[in-house]
Every structure is written in C-alpha cells, then in structure tokens.
Amino acid sequence: MTYNFDEVIERRGTDSVKWDGVKNVWGRDDLLPMWVADMDFRTPPFVMEALRKRLEHEVLGYTSACEEWYTSICGWLSRRHGWNVTREMLTFVPGIVRGQAFALQCFTNPGDRVMVMPPVYHPFFLVTQRMGREVVYSPLDLKDGYYQIDFDRFRKDIQGCKVLILCNPHNPGGRVWTVEELKRIADICKESNTFVISDEIHADLTLPPYKHHPFA
Q: In this structure, are residues 93 and 99 in contact, taking their beta carbons and an 8 Å threshold?
C-alpha cells in the first residue's frame, strides 16, 4: 500500500478539536495548531473498510470487547515487547487520561501525594490536582539535550508519595528509559511503598536502536 503523506485534507468545519478549537483557545484562527497530538493523514484503507463493514449492519447498539480485542492485544504485547499478559489482566478504558483518573480514584484518597516528573504530559498533574490530590514535582535534568533522572533527588522527592505517575517512554522528553533506570525506579518505589502508574501509550513509537521495556 502506498500512502500520500503530503496530501492536504481540509478539516475545518468538522468540529475538529485541533483546527476548530484554535479560536476558542487563542482567540484567533490564523495559527498552526501544534498543541495537540492529532495527525492530518487519512485513516488507512483497511481501517476504513472494517468500519464500513460494521456500519452496514445498521444497528449500532451497546457492544462489549470482542474476543479478538483480547487476543490481538495479548499477541502484540508478546511479539513486540516480550510482555506476556493474560486476558484477565486487561480492561477497557476510554483513553489514557480517564485511565489515570480511574487509577487515582482506586488507589489514592484526597490529600494523598502523587509524584510526576516534568516536563511531562500536562494531564498528569492537572487531573491529579482536580481530584484533590497533592502533586509533587520531581523535575528531570536536561544535560546535552538528553533528559536524565537525578536519582538522589528522586529518592528524596518520592518519600511520602502514595503514587508515582511514570511516563515510559517519556512524553515530551523522548527518553526511552533503560532497563537499569526502570529497575532503579522500581527499587526506590518499593522501599517507599509507592504505587506506580506507568503510561506506556508511546511504546510503539520507539525506533531502533532504542527498545521499549514495559515497567511491569
């Protein structure tokens, strides 16, 4: 299949958050919206065909996750990342941000301390704040264009934190954490009795020679 990534597709007037939301956010509509992770490429034909096939049934009632949903995820994680998960370990959530909120609701209480490592995806701290939890910031160090963890500071900052929200790989820093770094994070969090929520939504964007390692 040949894809044309230079094709310009007009999305204004389609209730696009990226394009139609510019004026609401910035008060003008002549800006390039580079603030949201939304691509302007056509959806691949095989995806569109699957959607058309489903729509041809014409009854769009309540649905549950089909068996293929489970088997495809388990198979992909095993083949791509060497992570063997079972069907019972999976559950559906409508997006990373909602998943974060559900996890915080389940494993923390209002007033609990939750650590993040900025610069990081902003809902990590905004959602935490709005849920009445205290955000603890433990910044990454930028050295020669390369983000690193100051583990002395990390060990100090994590004390008293109920949860660490880890971004693995890191967004927006682009760091693919090594096995050694992840093990060190795990050891310190075990010592401090800190629960780890690991956001790995960017795992499949890791390019050679780097390799993603699931925190689990």
A: yes
Block means of pLDDT (10 residues each) for the chain, 216 residues, are 91 92 89 86 94 94 92 97 95 92 97 98 96 98 95 98 98 95 98 97 94 96
How is the chain split into domains, by residue range? 1-63, 67-92, 94-205
Rounded CA Rg of the chain: 20
pLDDT for 58-84, tens place per residue?
A: 999 998 889 999 999 999 999 999 999
Query: Tell me: domain 94-205, CATH 3.40.640.10, correct?
Result: yes
Residues 6 or more apart in contact with residue 172 via CB below 8 angstroms: 119, 120, 121
Instruction: Tell me the C-alpha distance between 199 and 115, whole Å.
Output: 14
CB-based contact 116:125 (threshold 8 Å): yes
* CATH H-level superfamily of 1-63: Aspartate Aminotransferase, domain 1 (3.90.1150.10)
Helices in the chain by DSSP H: which ranges?
17-20, 22-26, 45-55, 67-81, 96-107, 123-130, 151-157, 179-191
Q: What is the pTM of this model?
A: 0.89
For residue 203, what are its two tokens? 């795992």
Full DSSP string of 53-93? HHHTT---------HHHHHHHHHHHHHHH-----GGG----
